[in-house]
């Protein structure tokens, strides 16, 4: 049995685990990352691309903002289209100067991986049989098998950044956690293509045929989404069928400007709202998807993970710099406050922009529910006060300090 000693063990090498590791290393706090899949597999995940200002500042604080600032696109607004009518949400003007940055999660992850390798920080990819032990003890540990050898990682704290299906949340006894979940009756079919985006800003579309999103990764690469039934498969959707359906859901003047081409990637993601309370158990802290999932409608998934990282990073810095262990107990309270704001906003955007068919929602059928949402959407989009509410939540609420 090989033994490793560190201060913080990080389970998961996605962007939240890598960012936390880089920030901690910058403060001289030792950390080791254990990841069950390969680095190439992590990089192959096609995910979010909209970063709140708070996330961007964290990346810069980690010393990794150069490529993001050079290649990322600053977006000062978004569009919401309802049945062909387009409304502009002036993020910068309505929030007093806040914006978002379009920079793909894959690119952030690549930047973080390269920086970690350059700093020679320990990372174990393709670790098998990862288990957490003694998380309520003063010295918890992580055991795993790496390339046929067994390892014990001894540490002070464990950050569970290993996603919804990871071991971290499952380590908390079932009777000690409360899980809130809402499964949506549809998914998002996403297509990535090397085609010029249809607009300079993201366009969220509500139509009689269902929801669509015209997103982008750069001036030459586009990402589009369609609301589809949960039982649809990628094989059901040829590129041609996808483009034709997208044109039907976009406003006519936007559809006329659509460039089509071969897909680089297609996938279907089910929509779920999920929160685990608490996000801490002893010296184990849940971060990102390990504790919460949001529908992608409000661009909050990666950004909520970043706010978790910000809170835990500040706590760990105070622990090791000031010997302030009292602040440790505040992590879950601080993280969950922002998580629930993000959950509510994503739920609200999803309700306003998707079609629910005949599903019963809050005791009413889907048609009646849609009428309420039509009225709500109409109020928020047609009043400056309503657009300001959307803008302030879209750019991200301020981080809460410990």
Class from secondary-structure proportions: alpha/beta
> What's the level 1 CATH class of the domain at 2-76 and 98-180 and 272-358?
Alpha Beta
The major beta sheet can be summarized as: 8 strands, mixed
Number of strands: 21
Span between N and C termini? Answer: 38 Å
What's the CATH H-level superfamily name of the domain at 2-76 and 98-180 and 272-358?
Answer: FAD/NAD(P)-binding domain
Query: Which architecture of the domain at 2-76 and 98-180 and 272-358 per CATH?
Result: 3-Layer(bba) Sandwich
CATH topology of the domain at 2-76 and 98-180 and 272-358: FAD/NAD(P)-binding domain
Strand content: 25-35%
Strand order in space, largest sheet: 7-6-15-16-17-14-18-21
The level of helicity is 25-40%
In the predicted model, the low-confidence regions spanning at least 5 consecutive residues are none
Mean pLDDT: 94
- The rough form would be described as globular
User: How much is the radius of gyration in Å?
Assistant: 21 Å
Number of helices: 13
